[in-house]
C-alpha cells in the first residue's frame, strides 16, 4: 500500500470508525446465517423426520442470508456513500494536487477494501462464537430431536465476506467516480454539493424490487399446491420477504421521495418558532444526507413494527379460523425473530452508524447557526428536531412496508389458516417508535454536543480541513 493510500485512510479514520459497526454487524449476520446452513448441510440425519428438520434449517439459513443481503444492499450502500460524500473535499484536493481520476478512484476503493476486510475479520469471529448458541436456538422442535454440531465452513465465511465487500465497493464506486470527474478548477466549489442522482439507475432498482415482489406473489398464487405441512411457513416467509423487498424499493426511490415527503409533512406542522424553522430548512436542504439517514431507520422501524403486527395478525387469524391460540403468541414472535433478527441487527447498526458519521457536518452547521445569531439553547434543540424529523419520516415509509407485507395475508390467510383478521398492538407500536426515536435523538444530538462548547471558527475549520 503506497503512502498516499495510508495517509487517506488515516485522514478518514473517524468517518470510517463511525460506520465500522455497520460493516461488522453485516458481516457477522451474513456469516452466521450461512454457517447455520452449512452446519445443517453437514449433518447426518437418521430417518425422514430428522432429514426434514435438517432441510428446514438449511433453508432457514439461506432465507436469512437473502434477507440480510437485501437489507445490506441499502444500509451498507447508504453508509458507504455518506462516508465518500463527506470526503469529497479531500478528494477535490487530490484532484487539485494533480491526482488522475484513476488514482482518486483507487484511493477511495482502497479505503473501502481495508475497512471492509478488517470488519470482516471481526464479523467472522463474532459469527463463529455465536454459531453454537444460534443452532441451539433454532432447533426448537422436540418431536424431531437431532443435534447439529457447529461446522465452521471457510467457504461460507468467504462467501459472506466477499458479498459484503462487493456491496461496499459498489456503494462507493459511483460516488468516487463522480468526484474524480470534477475538473480541478471546480473541485473545491463542487466538493460541498451533493452527488447527482441518475434517474435511470433509480428506475432500474425500483423495477427490480417490484419484479421481486411480483415473483414472490406468483410463488404462492395457489397455496393449496404447497405441501400442507409447509404451507403456513411458506406463506409467512413470503410475507416477510415482501416486508424487506418493500423496504428495498423505498430505499431505491429515496433520493426522489424522502426529501419531498419530509418537506410536505413538516410544512403542515403549525409551529412558527425560529428553532423549528432552522431545523426544518436544514434537513430539507440536505436532502441527500436526509435520504441516506432515513433509509436504515426505515428498515429498523419497518422490521420491528412488521414483526409485531405479523405476530398479532397470525394470532387474530387463527382465532378467526377457530384454532387454539393459547401458547401461539410467544412462540410465533420467537419464530419471527428467527426470520428477522439478523436483518434487524443490520438495520439498527446502520441507523446508528449513519447518524453518528455525519457528526462533523452537523457540528459545523450548528456553528454556522451560532454565527448567524442562534442561541445556545436553539443550537442544542436543532439536532433533536432533526432526529425527530428523520424518525417520523422513516415511520411513514415503514407504514408502507407493513402494508406491503400484509398483501399476502389478505390474499391467503383465509385459505391457509381458515380465517383472516389484522391485529395491531397499538400500545406496543407506539412504545417501539418512541424507543427508536430516543435512540435516533441520542445518535444525532449527543455526538454534536461537545462542539457546542467550542468556538465556531474552530469547528468550521475542522470540517473544511476534512
From TrEMBL:
<feature type="transmembrane region" description="Helical">
    <location>
        <begin position="387"/>
        <end position="411"/>
    </location>
</feature>
<keyword id="KW-0732">Signal</keyword>
<dbReference type="Pfam" id="PF02687">
    <property type="entry name" value="FtsX"/>
</dbReference>
<feature type="transmembrane region" description="Helical">
    <location>
        <begin position="59"/>
        <end position="84"/>
    </location>
</feature>
<keyword id="KW-0472">Membrane</keyword>
<feature type="transmembrane region" description="Helical">
    <location>
        <begin position="423"/>
        <end position="446"/>
    </location>
</feature>
<feature type="transmembrane region" description="Helical">
    <location>
        <begin position="151"/>
        <end position="173"/>
    </location>
</feature>
<feature type="transmembrane region" description="Helical">
    <location>
        <begin position="240"/>
        <end position="262"/>
    </location>
</feature>
<dbReference type="GO" id="GO:0005886">
    <property type="term" value="C:plasma membrane"/>
</dbReference>
<feature type="signal peptide">
    <location>
        <begin position="1"/>
        <end position="42"/>
    </location>
</feature>
<keyword id="KW-0812">Transmembrane</keyword>
<feature type="transmembrane region" description="Helical">
    <location>
        <begin position="199"/>
        <end position="220"/>
    </location>
</feature>
<protein>
    <recommendedName>
        <fullName>ABC3 transporter permease C-terminal domain-containing protein</fullName>
    </recommendedName>
</protein>
<keyword id="KW-1003">Cell membrane</keyword>
<feature type="domain" description="ABC3 transporter permease C-terminal">
    <location>
        <begin position="339"/>
        <end position="453"/>
    </location>
</feature>
<keyword id="KW-1133">Transmembrane helix</keyword>
<feature type="transmembrane region" description="Helical">
    <location>
        <begin position="294"/>
        <end position="320"/>
    </location>
</feature>
<dbReference type="InterPro" id="IPR003838">
    <property type="entry name" value="ABC3_permease_C"/>
</dbReference>
<feature type="domain" description="ABC3 transporter permease C-terminal">
    <location>
        <begin position="65"/>
        <end position="184"/>
    </location>
</feature>
<feature type="transmembrane region" description="Helical">
    <location>
        <begin position="332"/>
        <end position="356"/>
    </location>
</feature>
<feature type="transmembrane region" description="Helical">
    <location>
        <begin position="104"/>
        <end position="131"/>
    </location>
</feature>
